[in-house]
Amino acid sequence: MGLRAPNLLREGDLVALLGPSSPLPKSADADRCATVVESLGLRVKRYPSSRQTYDYLAGTDRQRASDINRAFADKRIKGIFCIRGGYGSSRLLPAVDWKAAGRSGKPFVGFSDITSLIGGLNTAGGAVAVHAPTPSYFLKQDAPGKRSLKALRKFLFEGYEGLSYRERCGRDFKPQIARRGKAKGRLVGGNLSLFAGLCGTQWMPKPKRGEKFILFIEEIHEQPYKIDRFLTQIILSGWMDHVAGVAVGGIDDCKPKRPDRWKGPDVVKFCLKDYKFPLLLGLPIGHCRPSYPLPIGAHVELDAVKGDLRVVGSG
Q1: Taking the mean position of all CA atoms in its chain, how far away is CA 76?
Q2: d(CA 168, CA 64)
Q3: Domain map of the chain by residue range?
Q4: Of the candidates 89, 298, 119, 139, the residue with the CA atom closest to the CA atom of residue 204
Q5: DSSP label at residue 207
Q6: I need a labelling partner for 187 at 20 to 30 A (CA). Which of 3, 13, 122, 208 fits?
Q7: What is the pLDDT of residues 236-274, one digit of tens each?
Q8: What is the DSSP letter of 221?
């Protein structure tokens, strides 16, 4: 049995806006983020963590976890938007009522540091999460951002069953085939550094009997040697034995410093060179602009022959 797919949103639905990670740099940005979500045709309930500051966190662990649990428990709330990433969501993993979260069927939207909570919803909640830009991503108003927001609305209101990223992304889809092949499996992952941080915890995805994973990774603002570190940690844990293919999104601003020469994508290929599974890079997903939503936990087919990622099962 697969993971539970999120319910579709409808015009006028009430959704939660909360902060599981870091605070916004400017308090006024909370209003702007709410406006972004409202532009999707939704009504917004702002939780305290969306505007709080507790040093580098958007409130204490108890406050932030409470907001998440209350949002999942409130039957009026139809979806949950994490206002930004940063740091701190992994601290909340033991405090979230994941069973209640999974039963709710509410789309849970976020990326970057929210990768930790996506792992929790997948493994402990038994539900698919929506890996997509947070509202703070859209504060920069440009053409790629507008395409990203349009894609997010379509994803949340119409679903993703049978979705082909080659077709959905159109001109923004410029894949790079690093190793040819095709593979099917359950989609897992997110931001590489956060996903590596789940190694050795109960929230790291574990395959069911005979199940394989398609691993998705993306990264930003990390030097190439750190990408090596994160991937090596996952490899040494033995977890990569469960992987049937790897899809790589944006590896943004991961520039080398002398004497290094390899860029981020070069390091990904270097670290995975001894595996035989298909490897596809350059997907417009992650911190890149534009950025398209991804159903983490759904079943997908990775096509590193034609260059595509297709959803073959909603959960």
Answers
A1: 25
A2: 34
A3: 14-158, 165-313
A4: 119
A5: P
A6: 13
A7: 999 999 999 999 999 977 777 767 788 899 999 999 999
A8: S
Q: Whose CA is closest to 309, among 159, 168, 115, 131? A: 168
Task: Centre a 10 Å sphere on the Cβ of residue 217 and count the other Cβ atoms it contains.
Answer: 27
Per-residue confidence (pLDDT) for residue 270, from 0 to 100: 96
Structure tokens, 285: 């997903």
Q: What is the pLDDT of residue 92?
A: 98
DSSP calls for 4-55: BPPPPP-TT-EEEEE-SSPPPSSTTHHHHHHHHHHTTT-EEEE-GGGT--BT
Distance (Å) of CA 268 to CA 11, 49, 256: 41, 35, 13
Give the integer Cα–Cα distance in Å for 248 and 165. 13
For the annotated catalytic residues, the residue numbers are: 112, 218, 287
Q: How is residue 74 written in tokens?
A: 């409130």
Q: Name the superfamily (CATH) of residues 14-158.
A: Murein tetrapeptidase LD-carboxypeptidase, N-terminal domain (3.40.50.10740)
Q: Rounded to whole angstroms, how far apart are CA atoms 43 and 290?
A: 25
Q: What confidence score (pLDDT) does residue 314 get?
A: 80
* Residue 105 backbone zone (phi > 0: left; psi -120 to 50: alpha; other: beta): left
Report the C-alpha gap between 53 and 60 in whole angstroms: 9
- Look up residue 22 and give its two tokens: 């870091």
- CB of 310 within 8 A of CB of 164? yes
The DSSP letter of residue 56 is T
pTM for this predicted structure:
0.96
Q: Enumerate residues 6+ apart whose C-beta is below 8 A from 273.
A: none
pLDDT of 1: 64
Class of domain 165-313: alpha beta
DSSP per-residue letters across 170-206: GGG---EEEE--EEEEEEEEEEHHHHHTTTTSTTS--
Residue 75 is classified by DSSP as: T
In this prediction, the residues of the chain whose per-residue pLDDT falls under 50 are none
17's tokens: 């806006």
